[in-house]
Write a structure and sequence with these properties.
Shape: globular
Order of helices and strands: HEEHHHHHEHHHHHHHEEEEHHHEEEE
Helix content: 40-55%
Strand content: 5-15%
Structural class: alpha+beta
Largest sheet: 4 strands, mixed
Oligomer: single chain
Number of helices: 16
């Protein structure tokens, strides 16, 4: 049985049709040839874009010369009302300063410090799902709740039930429903003074979210000043000084960063865990292996994480098939030559984890679910050269290690006591909104495992 995959568009469509398809879902808007092409060119009246799958060219952009290929403003235009000048959107010296302040909070030692808060969130998620045993459950809703709980517990030491945390979670769901992944500025270069065409509801939801985050951030700033702040990620980031300038983030700058922590740490983790649980229902033999491993090794101690090898490989394979961020866009700052083509300054370079992870010339059984591949030489080679669920190079997601621990822990804790099964609904269809989600949700039936009360 092959996991679901979007039906690609026809090979040739008009620009107008392509723009409409792209705004609705960037995955099904692409032709099938991208799963075997090393590089493809797309032309519009305003710019050229090049989707690149060839590993050495991807490495050139992300690892070898990242300063020559900054993030493209075309994609960030749609997210700026919420994310402002966060580390996800900035480039150059601004981005480097932000990373110098943020990165220490996510170093290896801090992961151990955040584990108790993650464990509490996992326990709460398991209890919520256990209360639904026997029911068909929309699992993305459950994983969104769990991932948001992890973020608030690790960032601000508050559970999702806290008033502000609950309001942010509610408002973010409203934002998701109103925000297309792209707006007109992604296709048409607009002058800075021209309005960006954001939907009124999108702007309103972004304002409400940022207002709530400002309230949390200002309160934490006051606690830090008084010497009574908890030792969590927010405190660590707010008190870290740029080693080059000695400056810390202002309240406004911290609001931008918290917004992307919530978006990246909640939305992407929710997507990854939901698809992993669907794959567990689709492949019950792997689900049983994860459950048995969790029964043997799972404990409220960070030391258990390295022993959860089956869960790690399952989660890695889910990230390969359903990378939460399916495409990344960089912009060439000078003339380049890729393969046999000349790229002009301003050309858009698209790097697609979605296509590279399923590339027929790179992977064995590219559309199949095979967690065992990660223990083979071929799988390890692909992990080095053709696997980038968290990007790669200097701009690799600062929370990549955090996300892997969170995903493995939540998966193991849920499946230790519970079983997920397919329902009679049609298979979920992957679509790209802010992340890779299912068009009509992912519905699974929840059962208690034998011997668990």
């Amino acid at each position: 049985m092959i996991p679901p995959k979007p039906t690609p568009r026809a090979e040739r469509v008009s620009l107008w049709r392509y723009m409409r398809l792209f705004r609705a879902d960037i995955l099904s808007a692409q032709p099938a040839r991208l799963y075997r092409a090393w590089m493809a060119e797309f032309r519009t009246p305003f710019f050229r874009s090049y989707l690149v799958n060839q590993p050495d060219l991807v490495a050139r952009v992300l690892k070898e010369r990242p300063d020559d290929f900054p993030k493209s403003d075309r994609i960030s235009e749609g997210l700026r009302p919420l994310l402002g000048e966060s580390v996800f959107l900035t480039n150059g010296e601004t981005w480097k300063r932000q990373r110098r302040i943020i990165d220490p909070a996510f170093e290896g030692g801090r992961l151990k410090d955040t584990f108790p808060a993650m464990w509490d969130a996992a326990e709460a998620a398991a209890a919520r799902l256990a209360a639904r045993t026997g029911e068909a459950v929309e699992i993305e809703e459950q994983t969104s709740h769990a991932a948001a709980d992890v973020i608030f517990r690790t960032l601000f030491s508050i559970p999702i039930e806290h008033r502000i945390a609950a309001e942010v979670f509610h408002e973010f769901r409203a934002y998701q429903r109103t925000q297309p992944i792209l707006n007109a500025a992604a296709f048409v270069p607009l002058p800075r003074w021209l309005p960006r065409g954001h939907r009124r509801r999108t702007r309103a939801a972004a304002r409400r979210i940022r207002g709530l985050i400002t309230e949390l951030t200002a309160a934490r700033m006051a606690e830090i000043a008084e010497g009574g702040a908890p030792d969590d990620l927010a405190t660590k980031i707010m008190t870290t000084r740029d080693p080059e300038t000695g400056e810390t983030f202002s309240t406004g700058e911290m609001v931008d960063q918290v917004a992307i922590f919530f978006l990246a740490g909640h939305e992407t983790s929710a997507s990854a865990l939901a698809w992993t649980l669907y794959l567990m229902a689709l492949y019950p033999e792997w689900q049983d292996r994860v459950a048995a491993e969790a029964e043997a090794h799972l404990a409220p101690d960070f030391a258990c994480v390295p022993r959860l090898r089956v869960a790690r490989d399952v989660f890695r394979e889910a990230l390969r098939l359903y990378p939460p961020v399916p495409m990344m866009v960089r912009e060439a700052t000078r003339a380049e030559r890729f393969r046999d083509r000349d790229l002009a300054p301003g050309a858009q370079v698209v790097l697609s984890p979605w296509h590279q992870h399923r590339h027929t010339r790179l992977w064995e059984n590219p559309d199949g679910f095979d967690p065992a591949r990660w223990e083979t030489e071929a799988g390890r080679a692909c992990a080095r050269e053709a696997y980038m669920p968290f990007s790669a190079g200097p701009r690799v997601c600062t929370g990549a290690g955090f996300a892997m621990v969170e995903g493995v822990l939540l998966l193991s804790r849920l499946l230790r006591d519970l079983r997920v099964e397919l329902t009679d609904r049609p298979p979920p269809v992957p679509v790209a909104h802010l992340t890779v989600r299912s068009k009509d949700g992912i519905w699974l039936r929840v059962r208690a495992r034998r011997g668990v009360s």
